[in-house]
TrEMBL record:
NCBIfam families per UniProt: 3A0109s03R (TIGR01098)
Keyword Zinc: no
Protein name: Phosphonate ABC transporter substrate-binding protein
Assigned keywords, A-Z: Signal
InterPro entries in UniProt: PhnD
Highest taxon listed in the record's lineage: Bacteria
Pfam families named in the record: Phosphonate-bd (PF12974)
Position of the signal peptide: 1-20
Family: Belongs to the phosphate/phosphite/phosphonate binding protein family.
Length: 315
């Protein structure tokens, strides 16, 4: 089995303006310099599966999102002439492993795991959700319960802060860099870091006072508030970051080129009106898919990785 290793050296934090030294695993080529794997020039290496496997980033309960994506996947099936199966992944690592091993063809990877998926799994990102006016993104928030006794960021010192996973931008990478740069606070030295696994776990943990504080994506929080999973009187936001790009949707690099184009066309031709996708993602202001590039839209995330001393080793 292929193994992925994410090495994070918080003691080697760089200025936030530093640029990550981003390179692809040796199994991939990038002849055009767009920072993503090229489609193989050798046609014998192209993949044309009879069933396409799709996965959504594991930020919340996969059972919820199987139904949310069902109409879109029917549209994708019509556009490609292939069966499409929803794959309910439980972790970022499992999702990346599946694409690297050829078991996953189309996926939405969360903001922080995108560089690892691009570098180690051959992900070719091409789309992101956006509002009707084309605006996009979310913010990292540090949240507490109103009765936690934590009223501002400096109050976390000596306590604990819940992160989601080390591959998450808003759930680990961005808050780690911001806390070091702006507050001179380092996980493991100035507060105890705990890992919940997913954003909804962190949010529920704060709401139920299992965690003193947590770093989360406010797009997830907004959807949970809209579904009444948590209520506003259970959450107090003490920090809000700049806006980051949200989940990027992409393809396995070695899919047949014509199939890749059909899949892209399916994303951009999907009519959201009246669908479960619209019902769910309108809660965080999203209404369409827009084209993106990893090189441009993920530049700020690569800078955060550089600030955190992140290196990617694919084995």
């Amino acid at each position: 089995m292929n193994k992925l290793k994410l090495v994070t050296c918080l003691s080697l934090l760089l200025p936030i303006a530093a640029q990550a030294d981003f390179t692809l695993d040796s199994r991939y080529q990038d002849s055009d310099g767009d920072l993503v794997a090229d489609i193989p020039a050798d046609e014998s290496k192209h993949v044309d599966p009879s069933t396409l496997i799709f996965a959504y980033t594991p930020v919340e309960d996969p059972a919820v999102y199987r139904e949310v994506w069902s109409e879109f996947l029917d549209h994708l099936s019509d556009a490609t002439g292939k069966k499409v199966q929803f794959f309910p992944v439980q972790s970022n690592a499992a999702q990346i492993e599946a694409m690297r091993a050829g078991r996953l063809h189309i996926a939405g990877f969360n903001t922080g795991s995108n560089p690892l998926a691009v570098a180690c799994a051959g992900l070719r990102p091409f789309a992101m959700m956006a509002a009707e006016d084309g605006s996009f993104g979310y913010e990292m928030e540090i949240i507490t319960h109103p009765d936690s006794g934590i009223d501002e960021v400096k109050d976390i010192k000596g306590g604990e802060l819940a992160f989601t996973s080390q591959t998450s931008n808003s759930g680990f990478k961005a808050p780690s860099a911001i806390l070091k740069a702006d507050y001179n606070m380092v996980p493991g030295e100035d507060f105890e870091p705990v890992f919940s696994g997913k954003h909804d776990n962190s949010i529920l943990g704060v709401a139920n006072q299992d965690y003193q504080a947590a770093a989360i994506a406010n797009s997830v929080l907004n959807r949970m508030l809209s579904r009444d999973v948590v209520s506003e009187d259970q959450i107090n936001t003490i920090y809000t970051s700049q806006t980051f790009p949200t989940t990027a949707y992409g393809l396995a690099y070695n899919l047949k080129p014509e199939l890749q184009e059909d899949i892209k066309d399916a994303f951009f031709s999907f009519d959201w009106e009246g669908t479960a996708l619209e019902e769910e993602f309108s809660k965080s202001g999203e209404a369409q898919f827009i084209p993106i590039t990893f090189k441009e839209h993920w530049e700020v995330i690569r800078k955060i990785d550089a600030a955190n001393g992140v290196e990617y080793a694919c084995q």
